[in-house]
Amino acid sequence: MEATMTEGLEEFSEQQKKILSRFVSNTSGKVFVLHNLPEVLKGALFSRYSRSNLGLRSLLLKEFILNQDSAFSSIVGKDPSSAEKEADEQIIAIKKAHDFYDRILDGYGDDSIAELGGAHLGVENISMLAAKALEESRIGGSPLEKSTRYICFDQKVNGEYLFYKEPVLMTSAYRDLYLSTCNRLFATYSKLIPLLSAQMEEKIPKESHVSKAAYTTALRAKVLDCLRGLLPASSLTNVGFFGNGRFFEQLIRKLSGHNLSELQEISKEMLAELSKVIPSFVKRADPATKYCQTYAAFSEQMKEELHLLASAHKAQIPQNREPGVFLISHDPDSIMKVAGALLYEYVDTSLEDIWKHVRKLSDEEVARILDAGALFRENRRHKSPRALELATFTFEIVADFGIYRDLQRHRMLTQERQLLTCNYGYFVPREIMGTAMEKEYVGAMEEAKKAYDLMAQELPEEAQYVVPMAYNLRWYFHVNLRALQWMCELRSSAAGHMSYRYVAQEMVRKVCQLFPAFERFFRFVDFEGYELGRMGQEIRREEKKAAPSL
Predict the structure, then answer these.
(1) Each residue's pLDDT tens digit, 161-191
(2) H or E stretch including 326?
(3) What is the pTM of this model?
(4) DSSP category for residue 228
(5) Which CATH architecture describes the domain 117-148+231-317?
């Protein structure tokens, strides 16, 4: 059942087309999509594809569909009527074919082959602290997390607020303190929602041209944004991922060596579930393999040594606990490097020589080059050229955990945070300052600090679970100009949270103070302030709902 070739394109018999049509979007065009295939099979197919002179459809037909060793029909079903097999039957079939696909992957691919298959993964009822650890892995995965803006976290199940009962704390002398502190934070959050809603509605009444639905949604988002700082890091959330096999393998391996038992447990569950759909791509994350064991030894030894060194030097390093956005490192040659890189594609000489030439140019000539890379953008979604990536900046930020939680999801930068603590003060929303609500809010915050201070003496990592989102922490971003442009134009928009909008605006101000020439690249940063920041977006949403469908 061999395919034939005509002018470079493969031709298939009617029987072959009938077989293939279940798995490819077309059997004759140059461009087509695979479907109805398990992820593990797609990855094995692509890994073989790079070493074969056959087209992908011929390869699928010859080496997979018609290959008895592949157990192909058991996995995908013998005909269209059997495509909807029971999940447990399909899992058994995939396991049966496991050795076959492993041979393909081991024989024809390296680590990058694991990026050719992926999975959608849901991780539910985990703490916000754990969610941040999952989202720290930057490349190959796309996370979505339950929103504190659209979802109210005041629900109870069986009379209890929804927060993670950390097992070490729950079996320690701090059990009752942990529970009472988290319950106090949730109770305060729940109590203040209707009070702040009423105050906001009185302060910012609905205008006649705004629909009730848009106004209500924007007002609710504003209230929840103000009060989210009360939620402890133990608050339960849900995270959804789409990721490739390489991403999941490295994430599982990293989580399995974490000190927090919640993350260790998540790693085990992730491995078990992903092994049902992409087993060959995550097998090296199994703790029993040499890959995982050697990584665990490396990670543990490195952490122990760094911890010892940090302890030795800590007392000699000055303490600065002031909140703010600090630009602590930059390249003074940034303008020259960006301007030269903008020209690079269009000249026939080395980048080093272009830089030497740009150094000799007048400010006006350099400005013309930079303008060429900036002036034709019409909105923030017009991505700037990669030349901007040659300018890099290191920011250190001391701001609340809620801000970090939002900004951390930008993956095209280098970032690291310190442990959550109650040592750097906390944020109080101006909307409750000077009201009776401020006393309730501050009282809950101070109680959380007392609990944290006690627990952290013995259990500094587990004590993070009791830290409310309003408390400040310290982290750094090392970011290039292009990534900074994207992040700050997005996060300064009117719809954003007022706190992270300030951080985005401040980062741009710092860069433009140093390099006024770079101001042209931040045309779509929004420096305005808004009472109901999401109002415009909610109005547009309601207008779309009301518009007749075409």
Answers:
(1) 999 999 999 999 999 999 999 999 999 999 9
(2) strand 324-330
(3) 0.83
(4) G
(5) 2-Layer Sandwich (3.30)
